[in-house]
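Minimal example, chain plus 6-sulfanyluridine-5'-phosphate.
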Amino acid sequence: MQPVNSMGPGEVWGSRWETCDNALARKYMQTVCRKQSAVIVAADLRTIDELNMLLDLIGEYIAALKTHVDLVDDWTPEGWAGLCEKAKSLDLLIFEDRKFADIGKISRDQMAGVYDIRSWADVVTAHGISGPDIVDGLSAAWEDVGRSGGVLLLAQMSSRGNLLDIAGYTDAMVDAGVANSGVFGFIGNGSRPDELSVLRSKVGNSKLIWTPGVNLTTGDGEMGQRYGHPSEAILAGSDGIIVGSGIHKSNDPASAAKAYALESWKALLERRV
Ligand code: S5P
């Protein structure tokens, strides 16, 4: 049998690799193969020092860095630029989980502003509640600074009582998103593999699905969060597990990140056949 470390993205991702139409998504799939990890860390920490320390500990075990730039207490442009440089040197896509939701032209402007998200984020999240033009607004913002990026549309959420499964919302989101080359993929609910399988069958193979709501300890989390097992999420169709507290609240973040990486990689290889 071929050693896994010589496997190319076509062998690991199968038809996902062949049909995926988004350059950044293909880059992510290659990174996953190189690092043998489909872990996106949700680095929900309040200081730049803590963020840097976390990346130093776990950078080799993850494929992307997810941030919430507006929860950092000591944010400065210089401090943030240093963190982004570190992420790039670790071969990580930078994903700002801003959950844009306004009309297209305001979302474009919100990509600028104090944080200037368009200049450093490769991927951002958006709700589709305002209609499909939000994707054009966000893509235009990247073009404004000579960059390109990808939008992750929230098709499902992991929190209990969320309203995204009401009255055909998810289906409409998927229909609009699949047809749009600015869409990197979708956020699905990692805590409910059965719902995730249904989402995957609607999405098809041309777009990625990344899933929060995963933890090696499953069940209810804080304030309505719900957790499913990372392997089950991947076997149900997730292409990237978004892990926050499972890593950054661990006493040993490096070992935790390594354990999530191993689970994700094993499940990806199992799904392949
Ligand atoms: O439905 C969602 C969508 C997202 S992006 N549910 C989520 O929890 N998230 C994000 O994933 C959330 O903003 C947080 O950064 C992360 C989950 O963190 P954890 O500590 O619960 O693993």
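The radius of gyration is 17 Å. The mean pLDDT is 95.
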